[in-house]
């Protein structure tokens, strides 16, 4: 069942039924000010940090669903009260439409001849959200309506806001001037920032106190002021500050009126001090309001936003026979990669914005799918991440985006984390050719006195694996590797005894074959980088250590038909035919093959055949099989999930991409693309009632074959699935892969394809690469011509002339 349709021309997903299986959301903002908005106008806004600078309030797990707060508008037309976004009033509308686009959402509602559209967006380089409201009288009679706006202020720190009521109920303060409602809570005490909500027209009245607006026992769906048609002009004094404007609007038949609402955030200069009980420095707010005071100015800002996305999405453009593939590659996958780059895993409809911050592992992986769009920002992020690294090469697992400080609550000891820094840096250099990043003086643990060149951080990342090897010569897993729920050191001394958390420093010896595979894959990239910068000694050392690790994997990490997942603290295999449950895991199969283990002796093919036999389902590849049906204390959290969910045999979409890449590496393009289509959102649209999540972005998890809700997705938007699936399709399947000396062309596609064209911007030049497959093979390049001249090999030359270069690739 479908709830809308793709409008590829306008790069929009159009929702035509407001009652989607789950709220289908969009993200607004691309620099510092961000908003989440659902298809019925639920959601919230924040500045930089969803925990420490939350601007508007939202309640997760709310009943009814997604009525936890939003940017709501109400219309009282004298006969009925309704909302253009259907919610929160939930009055049946004559017409409804939500268009989620690139950095904007447009919601249209129509009832009783009144058509109202609201376009929500965050202008470029602006710490504010604009609401362009257009109201049209489509009837043949004059209409007199009252329009009410509504946002509810969060008291800045989202965690404190939802827990510290004994204080917060006494601190709310607002100020109202003309058509602007200012949220200044705690401004005079310890903050030098405030927020505001304005409209570019005279108002009939306002409310800034929630109970006065709603009534103490009412909800968002039936606020007293709206249903009575009379604002109370309340001034919040403690309790729950809000911002609601009321405007009287007269519309003759056919007449249209346009309004601009602005939700803004102001961070004052240090010398802009509090001037008294009811006075804040409003200069910057007034300047911002003036900037967007007209519809013409708002439309220009919308055009600028469209141009921005045109530029971002022009870097990699696919023209193929498959519309679903084109829209994923050209629009939605790249758009999601930008969102995950901005927010890591901090704020979604599954992440509250309070607990996660920016993940070290997560953010490094997100760069892989984003670096081709705005490499300068990727460079900045790499330095930020490296600055949180610890001197031993380990890393804080998370950091807060506002402070850029490591999160001590989570700490480190996730032993895969350091390797991802190498991969993101290598990917940046391959994209840009900018080796100077290696010389940037970068602190450890944000201590400037401990600054070293970034190249030193990479060396310590590489050595962190070598300095933490277990009894088999495999890397120690630490608290966990990529799979946060596989906690092989989290118990006392014997299976069945009381649970406690320990680490390898306490003598634990659990080992990860997955990290070993990563080390071969990423370590070889490190060695190649050292070779490129002329550090032959380090390159030779790194190549030798990678070769040694491959030998260890093939000796101790091979289980006869697939790669072992790990060794627990008792030296017993995990992910082996020797186990009763959890005999095979997906992660070590993908990453060991990406690390070029088993390619020469056929064992890589054996492992991939085992993946197909044991892990493949119609909705994607499950993480392990058989699912755990009982609790194994020595495995940690993984077996606490019900069978088929999350890490316990769920379809964890992130690591599906590693199998796609592995299948491409061994030349099985049909299988690689088949796996791609099983989880790519555009291919799930027809089964939205089962999948439930947005059909335009990836979800982290789809319930596996052991689950009662097989095929149901969760945790959409903020997932490494976005970047890795873009890497899998663009670099491994379509085969256009940046390298140190140019673009490598090495497709691995279904045999039935006739070909395709990729237009790729790279280091200032544009390559239009037409791949032809006359012999209907999956892989193998027989001939490449560049500007009608045949080249040897499959690396496209670098020109540096800023021109378009025509490339023809013949497979065979």
Rounded radius of gyration (Å): 28 Å
Q: Determine the CATH topology of the domain at 31-310.
A: Beta-galactosidase, Chain A, domain 5
Q: How confident is the prediction overall: mean pLDDT? A: 94
In DSSP terms (H or I, runs of 4 or more residues), the helix count works out at: 19
Query: What amount of the residues lies in strands?
Result: 25-35%
Share of helix among residues? Answer: 25-40%
Alpha-carbon distance between the two ends: 41 Å
Structural class: alpha+beta
Q: Say how many strands there are.
A: 41
Are there runs of 5+ residues with pLDDT below 50, and where?
A: 492-505
* Name of the CATH superfamily of the domain at 31-310: Glycoside hydrolase, family 65, N-terminal domain
* Lateral strand order in the biggest sheet: 1-2-9-10-11-12-19-16-15-14
**CATH class designation of the domain at 31-310:** Mainly Beta
Shape: globular
* Named CATH architecture of the domain at 31-310: Distorted Sandwich
Biggest beta-sheet profile: 10 strands, antiparallel
Domain Glycosyl hydrolase 94 supersandwich: 11-293
Pfam families: GH94_b-supersand, Glyco_hydro_94
Keywords: Glycosyltransferase, Transferase
GO biological process, one term: carbohydrate metabolic process
Could you explain the architecture of this structure?
By secondary structure, the protein is of the alpha+beta class. Among the domains are: 31-310, Distorted Sandwich (Beta-galactosidase, Chain A, domain 5); 736-811, Maltose phosphorylase, domain 3, CATH 2.60.420.10. Helix content is 27%, strand content 25%. A ten-stranded antiparallel sheet has the order 1-2-9-10-11-12-19-16-15-14, covered by helices on one side. Strands 6, 7, 8, 13, 17 and 18 form a six-stranded antiparallel sheet that branches. A six-stranded mixed sheet has the order 20-37-38-41-39-40. A hairpin with a 4-residue loop joins β4 and β5. The longest helix is centred in the middle third of the chain and has 21 residues, at 323-343. The radius of gyration is 28 Å and the shape is globular. Residues 308-735 form the Glycosyl hydrolase 94 catalytic domain. Keywords: Glycosyltransferase, Transferase. InterPro entries: 6-hairpin_glycosidase_sf, 6hp_glycosidase-like_sf, Gal_mutarotase_sf_dom, GH65_N, GH94_catalytic, GH94_Enzymes, GH94N_CBP, Glyco_hydrolase_94_b-supersand. GO terms for molecular function: carbohydrate binding; glycosyltransferase activity.
């Amino acid at each position: 069942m479908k709830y809308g349709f793709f409008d590829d021309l306008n790069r929009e997903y159009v929702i035509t039924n407001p009652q989607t299986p789950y709220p289908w959301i969009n993200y607004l903002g691309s620099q510092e000010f961000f908003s989440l908005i659902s298809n019925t106008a639920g959601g919230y806004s924040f500045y930089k940090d969803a925990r420490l600078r939350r601007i508007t309030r939202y309640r997760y797990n709310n009943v009814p669903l997604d009525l936890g707060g939003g940017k709501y508008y109400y219309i009282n037309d004298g006969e009925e009260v309704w909302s253009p976004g259907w919610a929160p009033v939930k009055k049946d509308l004559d017409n409804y439409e939500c268009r989620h686009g690139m950095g904007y959402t447009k919601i249209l509602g129509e009832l009783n001849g009144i058509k109202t559209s609201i376009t929500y967006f965050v202008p470029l380089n602006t710490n504010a959200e604009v609401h362009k409201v257009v109201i049209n009288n489509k009837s043949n009679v004059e209409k007199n309506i009252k329009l009410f706006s509504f946002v509810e202020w969060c008291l800045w720190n989202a965690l404190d806001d939802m827990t510290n009521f004994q204080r917060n109920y006494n601190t709310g303060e607002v100020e109202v001037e003309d058509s602007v409602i200012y949220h200044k809570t705690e401004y005079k005490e310890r903050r030098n920032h405030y927020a505001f909500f304005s409209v570019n027209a005279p108002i009939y009245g306002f409310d800034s106190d929630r109970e006065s607006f709603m009534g103490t026992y009412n909800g968002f769906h039936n606020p007293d002021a709206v249903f009575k048609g009379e604002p109370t002009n309340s001034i919040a004094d403690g309790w729950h500050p809000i911002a609601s404007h009321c405007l009287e609007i007269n519309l003759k038949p056919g007449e249209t009126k346009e309004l601009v609402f602005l939700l803004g955030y102001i961070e004052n200069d240090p010398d802009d001090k509090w001037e008294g009980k009811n006075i804040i420095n409003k200069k910057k707010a007034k300047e911002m309001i003036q900037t967007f005071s007209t519809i013409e100015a708002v439309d220009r800002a919308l055009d600028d936003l469209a141009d921005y996305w045109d530029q971002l999405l022009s870097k990699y453009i696919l023209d193929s026979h498959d519309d679903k593939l084109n829209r994923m590659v050209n629009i939605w996958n790249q758009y999601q990669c930008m969102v995950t780059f901005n927010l890591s895993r901090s704020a979604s409809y599954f992440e509250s914005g309070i607990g996660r911050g920016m993940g070290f592992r997560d953010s490094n992986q997100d760069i892989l799918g984003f670096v081709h769009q705005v490499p300068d920002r990727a460079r900045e992020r790499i330095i930020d991440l490296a600055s949180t690294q610890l001197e031993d090469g380990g890393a804080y697992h998370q950091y807060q985006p506002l402070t850029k400080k490591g999160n001590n609550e989570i700490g480190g000891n996730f032993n895969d984390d350091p390797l991802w820094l190498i991969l993101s840096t290598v990917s940046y250099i391959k994209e840009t050719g900018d080796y100077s990043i290696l010389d940037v003086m970068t602190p450890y643990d944000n201590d400037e006195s401990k600054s070293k060149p970034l190249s030193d951080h990479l060396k310590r990342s590489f050595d962190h694996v070598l300095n933490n090897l277990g009894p088999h010569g495999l890397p120690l897993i630490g608290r966990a590797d990529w799979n946060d729920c596989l906690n092989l050191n989290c118990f006392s001394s014997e299976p069945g005894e009381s649970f406690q958390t320990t680490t390898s420093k306490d003598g634990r010896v659990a080992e990860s074959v997955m990290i070993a595979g990563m080390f071969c894959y990423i370590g070889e990239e490190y060695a190649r980088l050292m070779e490129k910068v002329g550090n032959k000694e380090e390159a030779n050392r790194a190549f030798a250590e990678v070769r040694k690790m491959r030998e260890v994997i093939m000796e101790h990490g091979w289980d006869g038909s697939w790669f072992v997942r790990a060794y627990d603290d008792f030296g017993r295999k995990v992910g082996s035919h020797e186990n009763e449950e959890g005999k095979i895991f997906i992660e070590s199969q993908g990453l060991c093959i990406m690390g070029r283990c088993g390619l020469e002796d056929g064992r890589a093919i054996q492992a991939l055949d085992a993946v197909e036999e044991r892990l493949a389902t119609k909705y994607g590849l499950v993480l392990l099989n058989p699912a755990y049906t009982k609790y194994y204390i020595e495995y940690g959290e993984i077996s606490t999930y019900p069978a088929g969910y999350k890490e316990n045999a769920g379809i964890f979409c992130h690591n599906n991409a590693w199998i796609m890449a592995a299948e491409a590496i061994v030349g099985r393009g049909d299988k690689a693309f088949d796996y791609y289509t099983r989880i790519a959102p555009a291919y799930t649209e027809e089964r939205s009632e089962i999948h439930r999540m947005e059909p335009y972005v990836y979800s982290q998890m789809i319930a596996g074959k052991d689950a009662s809700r097989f095929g149901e997705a969760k945790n959409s938007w903020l997932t490494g699935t976005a970047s890795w699936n873009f890497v899998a399709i663009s670099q491994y399947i379509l085969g256009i892969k940046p390298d140190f000396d140019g673009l490598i062309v090495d497709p691995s596609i279904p045999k039935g394809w006739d070909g395709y064209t990729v237009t790729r911007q790279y280091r200032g030049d544009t390559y239009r690469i037409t791949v032809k497959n006359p012999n209907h093979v999956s892989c193998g390049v027989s001939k490449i011509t560049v500007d009608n001249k045949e080249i040897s090999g499959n690396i496209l030359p670098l020109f540096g002339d800023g021109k378009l270069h025509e490339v023809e690739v013949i497979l065979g």
